[in-house]
Amino acid sequence: LNYHTAEFTISAPTLAHCPSDSGAEVAFAGRSNAGKSSSINTLTGSSRLARTSKTPGRTQLINFFGLNSGSMQRLVDLPGYGFAKVPEKVKLEWQRHLSEYLVKRQSLRGIVLVMDIRHPLTEFDQMMLQWADEVQKPVHILLTKSDKLKRGAAKTTLLEVRKALKEWEDLVSVQMFSALKKDGVDELKTKLDSWLEF
Ligand code: GDP
């Protein structure tokens, strides 16, 4: 698939506002600042498709991007999570919308879970993995910002994360990624192709 054809379609505040649940889509999730927007931008070759701005209000929306100027194959940017200043009530709302999306969305083929390689498997990540397991959706983990670590340290983290998730190895895969160096893009595309093809 040509991910450079991705075009913004719609922002949905809740499941009810999402585009028709047909075709196939892949959702990107990650704790705020993990590098989710940068990874989407790198994949799609666009410097500003997924906003890297940190406006908490905007991050609550589920953003859809259609591929190949149609809506049958989509990338989905899920709400960021983890702004310290957001009240507990708003956090609970996010959780409700996220879990509802994951449980009910038939066209969801898999989740790309973006983690900063220096801080993998946060509480948010564990929650996402738990939900994905409950609905038996595959998860592909991007250990991004790999350029921030030396090769040896990055490799060690990759192996440690794989080991920590061994019990879920049927549903979970892990790779290194760097938006800065454009490392790992082909590996990511291969995974997305396998999920999005009909
Ligand atoms: P998001 O909140 O998860 O969407 O995170 P962003 O994509 O906005 O990235 C958060 C910060 O990390 C920004 O300052 C980015 O420039 C930086 N960043 C993202 N990806 C990389 C990467 O691969 N390498 C480095 N060195 N910095 C990155």
Automatic annotation (TrEMBL):
<dbReference type="GO" id="GO:0005829">
    <property type="term" value="C:cytosol"/>
</dbReference>
<dbReference type="InterPro" id="IPR027417">
    <property type="entry name" value="P-loop_NTPase"/>
</dbReference>
<keyword id="KW-0547">Nucleotide-binding</keyword>
<dbReference type="InterPro" id="IPR019987">
    <property type="entry name" value="GTP-bd_ribosome_bio_YsxC"/>
</dbReference>
<dbReference type="GO" id="GO:0046872">
    <property type="term" value="F:metal ion binding"/>
</dbReference>
<keyword id="KW-0342">GTP-binding</keyword>
<keyword id="KW-0717">Septation</keyword>
<feature type="domain" description="EngB-type G">
    <location>
        <begin position="22"/>
        <end position="198"/>
    </location>
</feature>
<dbReference type="InterPro" id="IPR030393">
    <property type="entry name" value="G_ENGB_dom"/>
</dbReference>
<dbReference type="Pfam" id="PF01926">
    <property type="entry name" value="MMR_HSR1"/>
</dbReference>
<keyword id="KW-0131">Cell cycle</keyword>
<protein>
    <recommendedName>
        <fullName>Probable GTP-binding protein EngB</fullName>
    </recommendedName>
</protein>
<keyword id="KW-0460">Magnesium</keyword>
<comment type="function">
    <text>Necessary for normal cell division and for the maintenance of normal septation.</text>
</comment>
<dbReference type="GO" id="GO:0000917">
    <property type="term" value="P:division septum assembly"/>
</dbReference>
<dbReference type="GO" id="GO:0005525">
    <property type="term" value="F:GTP binding"/>
</dbReference>
<dbReference type="InterPro" id="IPR006073">
    <property type="entry name" value="GTP-bd"/>
</dbReference>
<keyword id="KW-0479">Metal-binding</keyword>
<comment type="similarity">
    <text>Belongs to the TRAFAC class TrmE-Era-EngA-EngB-Septin-like GTPase superfamily. EngB GTPase family.</text>
</comment>
<keyword id="KW-0132">Cell division</keyword>
